[in-house]
Amino acid sequence: MFFAFIFVMAEAPLVLFNDEVKSTAVSDSMIVEAGKAVKDSVMAVAAVDSTGLDTLTADTVVTPLHDGPDTTTMDSLQLAIYHHNRAIDDSLALDSANRARKNGIDSPVTYSAEDSVVYEAGTGIAYLFGDSHVLYQDMDLKSDRIYMNMDSSLVHATGAKDSTGAVFGTPVFSMGSDKYESDTMAFNFKTKKGLISDVYTQQEDGYLTSELSKRNSDGELFLQHGRYTTCDKPHPDFYIAMSRAKVRPGKDATFGPAYLVVADVPLPLAIPYGFFPFTKSYSSGLIMPTYGDETERGFYLRDGGYYFAINDMVDLKLIGEIYTKGSWGLSAASNYRKRYRYSGSFFASYQNTINGEKNMPDYSKQTSFKIQWSHRQDTKANPFRTLSASVNFATSSYERNNLTSMYNPQSYTQSTRTSSVSMTNTFSSIGMTLSTTMNLNQNMIDSTIALTLPDVNISISRFYPFKRKKMAGKQRWYEKISLSYTGHLSNSITTKEDKLLHSKLTRDWRNGMQHNIPISGNFTLFNYLNINPSINFTDRMYTNKIMRSWDETRQREVTDTIDGFYNIYDWRMSVSASTKLYGMFVPWKKLFGDKVIAIRHVFTPQVSFNYSPDFSTKRYGYYDTYQKTDSEGNVSIVEYSPYSNGLYGVPGRGKTGSISMDISNNIEMKIRSDKDSTGVKKISIIDELGASMSYNMATDIRPWSDLSTRLRLKLTKSYTFNMNAVFATYAYELDDKGRPRVSNRTTRYSQGKFGRFQGMSQNISYTLDNKKVANFFKWLRGERVDKNDAGSDYDTDDEDDYFDRETNEDKTLQKARNGARKENAGKAETDEDGYMDFSMPWSLSFGYGISMREDTGGKFDYDRMRYPYSFMQTLNFSGNVRISDGWNISFSSGYDFENKKISMTTASLNRDLHCFNMSCSVVLAPYTSYNFSFRCNAATLTDALKYDKRSSYSNSVRWY
Description:
Elements: H1 2-11, H2 76-93, E1 109-112, E2 116-120, E3 125-136, E4 139-149, E5 154-158, E6 160-161, E7 167-168, E8 172-175, E9 178-181, E10 184-188, E11 194-203, E12 206-215, E13 221-229, E14 238-248, E15 252-255, E16 258-262, E17 265-271, E18 274-277, E19 285-287, E20 290-294, E21 298-308, E22 316-323, E23 328-338, E24 342-355, E25 364-377, E26 385-394, H3 398-401, H4 409-412, E27 416-427, E28 432-443, E29 448-463, E30 482-496, E31 510-520, E32 523-525, E33 529-551, E34 556-578, E35 581-585, H5 589-592, E36 596-612, E37 624-629, E38 635-640, E39 656-672, E40 680-696, E41 707-714, E42 720-728, E43 730-734, E44 740-747, E45 756-769, H6 770-780, H7 811-819, E46 842-854, E47 869-884, E48 887-896, E49 901-902, E50 905-913, E51 916-925, E52 929-936, E53 946-950
Antiparallel strand pairs: 1-3, 2-3, 3-4, 4-5, 4-8, 5-10, 6-7, 8-9, 9-11, 10-11, 11-12, 12-13, 13-14, 14-15, 14-16, 15-18, 16-17, 19-21, 20-21, 21-22, 22-23, 23-24, 24-25, 25-26, 26-27, 27-28, 28-29, 29-30, 30-31, 31-33, 32-33, 33-34, 34-36, 35-36, 36-39, 37-38, 39-40, 40-41, 41-42, 42-45, ...
């Protein structure tokens, strides 16, 4: 009992015995606050302050105000208890867990575990079991088991094994944007250093693994026996085996001796050292060239150079090419972009091509260049001023000398190029628009250039000069009169490439200005008849005129250009009347059923009168004559216009007073429909059926015009049938020499015949795919077709490039490459019996065009009094077949009916190999070539791991 009493008294404060004791001691124990238990898991959270003391224990030692109580006044029992408590206080003061650490961590450490937490107060080690989590500042560690030393700030993490021996819950360490997966990890929170075994981390497009890794305080990793790959599979298809490497996360990786391993097979492709850039922001660097050989120019190194990352808005790429026989070339490409202002790209290339050997007959030396510029202004930059550019200029010999054009049929066979630069200013206060444009058209076949510089347009939108500012009452008739203005200033030339820079502005260039002022009104007569009168005034200004005369000695026409200022004007007036007539027909229900509600017919007639005086009379001075005497002495008067060579032409000869008639018909049917939300549906039977013809009252020679007809049918939602045809009014007759000619007065209608068919043209195009065919058979079986399945498996181009930039990639090949990577392409579908549903997506597009014209150059049929007809037909087709996931085949071809030959025929095969892409494209007609490419998909390795093989440039050898 005595010892029990002493034990109890030792556990309680002895204020009972001594009121002067000032020091307080709390026993050294671990205090765990138990929360609500979820299932069988226990969650414990501990916080470590900046001094490293366990705040949950709250053990504190307070220094007494004096040395202690007077022990001389105590009896033996009190003195024994006092010495016992004093010994306990001294041990607490010397406890390492309660001593202030000099180099403690800077912020709280939060740790948790799903299963259990065990804390050893004596050693300061916390054991976390089951989905453990430790968080310190921006460092986050997750693992199944974590051992944490609170004194030394060391953390050791590892996974666990299940009953089968499989490891689970391996450590995942994150620090900022860096993430590491490993088998075992040891880390120091304070120094931020660590030792990691079997690390796995992702750096941009690549993945790094190593047997043993060390991390320093700067975040750099030092790898031993590492691997680098861009394959995201757990067991990669390929990797670069590195003996040692240093990785700077987000920057680069530098490695020592390394070799390539594909499908676990080491290849004899080794390098002594290398590096991979990981930076997210683009940076400057070398561009590795490609090598090969070409028949005419020899071995080459091309597409190698340097990339300059100037800043976030502008970059520059300089590449070159060199051949062993002396040919060389330089290219510069730049992209620029300023957010909310503008964006664009620029490309310039120069080639010096040498073919053959010196002092040999086939030796030639040729220079060529190409310039491309694309500029687009953001709509938010300036609503009143826009600048756009689409420049695509190249010398006619550039594509023939460019090696890559041989494998891009669209670029190689391009016959015309267009370029334009325009700037538009809008003055909204006065409704005026001022635009300036530079246009350039090139004919690559004969090197003809048509350049317009500048081309200025000034326009003032329609306004009503007699309209009252404050409306009161009904609108008066003269307030409906409107006025507008359009001005056009242009300077152009058509010449050859080599003569452009040597041309003269006043002699070779054509320039002028035109003003156009239309005055019109819109009135309603009798509430149904629309009357539209108009007067149009046109004025032309030229800086020269060409006078013509006849040289009897040389028997040829002589021209003389006279500079000066010349003003030419004309005017014309017109009045048109139009209305709409509606007719409704309710079909007989016993014949058509209850589904047809009504059929509507809209008839739109229009009559117009046009008048213009004869501007070829002498008082205008727009036409002149000269006397021509041929070698036989025959004299004739030749009439001409000195301004016929002007940009805007010259007013026409003869008086015009014509009446034009036009009719248009539209027939629609309204039916009941359960699929439509309104319960009814409109069906277009004939979208438009129209005809037009005119009669000129001011002339006695062929006053009737030809009859023009048009037909438009909406066959489906995606296809509209259009056809235009012309029927000649006047018949053929024979002149005094028995030659056919068009009669001036005799019409075919007067002969009891319809107008002579002049010709027509029609283009038909359609795309067929596997879903459309399947839906068609569903419709035949009476099954309901889902509208979501009516589309094609192949996506169409939703937007056109603002500028069709020339590239070295085959567009057909690019479409095939995209087609092999469709979303959900690898997901298998099953039928109703559970078997895998067979699916082979395909598409087939074809276009057929036919034009029928009267061949006036053919043999005349005197019996039928007409010329034969000539037909021109074109046929083009293309297709795409995805035979399996990753396999894609595409082709395009056509037939030239005139030459009876196959037109441009291309085919491409693409295979997506997950980490690699294999593609092959061939041109079968009119020339033969092939292009094979095998390269890594990742941008980091696409220039390093690749193999390209192309057919020779200038040999037309049949290799198949």
